[in-house]
Amino acid sequence: MVKKSFMLVGAPASSAKEIEIDLQNPFEYLQYDVAQTFAIAQSKGISFQTEKDGALDDLDNFTDATSPIGILVDGNQVRDVPGPSGLPIAGSYYEVYPDHLGNHQRLFEQYGSVFKTTDMGRTTYYTNDPKVAEVCFGEGGFWSKKINSDHPLYGIKDQNAGVFLSDTDAESWNIVHRFLAPALSPKAVRHYTPQMQNTAEQAFKVFDEFDKEGEAWNVYQYMFKMGSTAIGKLALNMDLHHFDSINAPLHDLVRTVGENLELNKKVSTMGDWYSHMPWGAPKQLKQNKAHVKQLVDEAVANVVGKDTEDLPIADAALKASCIVDYLARATDDKGNKMPEKYRSDATLVTVGAGFITTASLLSWMLFSLVSYPGNQQRLLQELVDYGVTEDTEWTPDLANSLPFLGILIKEVQRLHNPSYQPGRTALADVIIPGGYRIPKDSVMIIAIHHIHNNAKVWDDPEKFDPDRWNTDKVQNRHKTAYVPFAAGPRMCIGFNFALEEVRVIISMLIYRYQFEKVGNEPMEYDPAFQLVRPNNFYVRAKKRTSWPKKSEN
Ligand code: HEM
C-alpha cells in the first residue's frame, strides 16, 4: 500500500486529494478509485503524469512518484465546455436556428465533440462522441433522464405518462415501463404483423389512384397517414380512415399530436420564460394538450370494458386487441395491474412516439431508394429472389430474412436518422469522456444525427453505402456509435414494432410500384419540427407490370 496525493492537471494545488493505492491490484482499480474521488464518469480514460516523472502507466512507478500526481482524462486536461458566446438575451439562438442540424455540425467542427449553447436563456450541451453518449445513456450515478426546465421535453413533460415524458426516477416510469414494454416485444409484434400488411393494402387504393391520374404526391404527408394508421390500430384498435380517399382528412387526434410537436419545438428552442406566456405557441400548446387528452380519454373508454378478463402479461400481449386493451387487462405475477391513472397518458405517448417517428423513417427510406442509384432495383431483386409476390402473407420470419433490406434500413437510419434528439441531465458535477467538466443539472443532448455523421467514427460518413454494414469495422464499432433508438434504460421500447412495420410496408410498396423522385430542388428537412422529416419530397409511384427474373444462384 502507498498513499499518494492526486489532482486534476491544471487545477489549484489545494484541490489535491489523497488516495491509498494497493500495489497488488490491477492498474484499473486505481483508475476506478480516482474516478470515484474526482467524479469522473468513465474510469478507463484516466491517465497520470507528474512534471518530474512524466507519464505513470504502471503501478510500479507510483511508489517513488512525486506528489501530487496529475490526472488527465482521455489525454486531456479537464476543462469547461466551449461554445459560442452569442448576443445579449438571444444568446446563440441566431447562430443555431433555423438550420439547427447544419449549424450544430458547424459548431462541432469549430469546438470539438462537446459544445454548449445558450439560446434565449436556455443552456444546452451537445455531443457527437459515442463515448459521451455511452455515459449519458447509461444512467449510472451521474446521469438520468430528468426533464428540468432546460430539457427539450419540458413543455410536454407528463409524469403520469410513465414513459417518454417522465423522469426515470418517477414511480410511474418504473411501473408503466414494466407493463408496456412486453406489449411491444418481438413476440407481440409478430401478432401485429397482419395489421401492418393491412395498412399498406389500404394505402394501395390511394397510390393506385394517383398513378392512374399520373400525379405525384408528397411522401411525408402520406407516410404520416400510414404511420398513424398502423399505430391507431396498434394502440387504440381505431380505424382512422386515412385512406378512404386521396384527400381523406387527418384524424383529429393525429393532426393535433403532429401540431403539438411543432409547437413544442417552438417553445423549447426559446427560454423557459417563453413557455409561461399566455399567448402564441405556449397558449396553443396548452389548449392542444387538453384537446388531445380528451380525445384519448374517449378512445380509451371505447376500448376498455368490452372484454374484462384479466390476463398474465405474456398472454395479454398476444390476446389483447390493442395496447389500451392490453394495459387494462395485463396482470403481473403478483396479481398487480398498471394503475388506471397512467392508462390514457401512457397510451397517448405510445401513439405520439410511435407514428411520427415511423412516418419519418418510411419517408427517408423512400427518399434513399429513389435518390441513391441501384438500391431500389437491388431491393426488388431481393424480394423476387425470396419468393415475394403480390399474394405474399407477410410474417416476421420473412421480413427478417431479407439481408439487403436489413442493411438498407440501418444505412437510412444512420445517414437520415429521423429521430428526436434525446437529452439526459447531470445529477451532479461530473467530468465526462474527453475531459469536459459538466455542472449539475446540465442537459446533454446526444446528437444522434451528428454521431451517425461523425467522420471520426464513420468512414466517408456522407456516402450512402448499405454494404458498410457487412464490414468488420462497422460490425465492431463502439456500442453507442449507432443509436437510432437511443440506448440504456430509456431507449425506445417500440423499436421492434417500428422495424417490422418498415420492413413490411417498404417491401410491399417497392414490390408494387416503381418510385421516381419528382423535382430536383435540395431536400428541406423542416427545422421547425421536433423530428427530422423531408418536407418537399414528391414521388411518382408507377404500378409495376413486370418484375425481374429470380437470380440464378
Ligand atoms: C423509427 C421509429 C422510431 C424511432 C427512430 C424511435 C426513437 C426513439 C428514441 C430516440 C427514444 C428515446 C427518447 C429519449 O430518450 O428522450 C424513444 C423512446 C420511446 N419510444 Fe421510440 N422510436 C421509434 C418508434 C417507436 C414506436 C413504433 C413506438 C411505440 C409503438 C415507440 C415508443 C417509444 C416509447 C414509449 C419511448 C419511451 C421509453 C421510455 O421512456 O422508457 N417508438 N424512441
Could you please describe the fold and organization of this structure?
By secondary structure, the protein is of the alpha+beta class. Among the domains are: 2-77, Phosphatidylinositol 3-kinase Catalytic Subunit, Chain A, domain 1 (Ubiquitin-like (UB roll), Roll), CATH 3.10.20; 172-398 and 411-416 and 493-543, Cytochrome p450. It is built from 19 helices and 18 strands. The protein has a five-stranded mixed sheet, with helices on one face. Strands 7-8-16-13-9 form a five-stranded mixed sheet, with helices on both faces. The chain has a three-stranded mixed sheet with strand order 6-15-14, with no helix packed on it. Strand 3 and strand 4 (54-55) form a beta hairpin. The chain is globular, with a radius of gyration of 26 Å. The structure holds protoporphyrin IX containing FE. Protoporphyrin IX containing FE is lined by residues 145, 163-164, 177, 184, 349-350, 353-354, 357-358, 361, 418-420, 422, 484-486, 490-494, 497-498. Protoporphyrin IX containing FE (HEM) binds at residues 145, 163-164, 177, 184, 349-350, 353-354, 357-358, 361, 418-420, 422, 484-486, 490-494, 497-498.
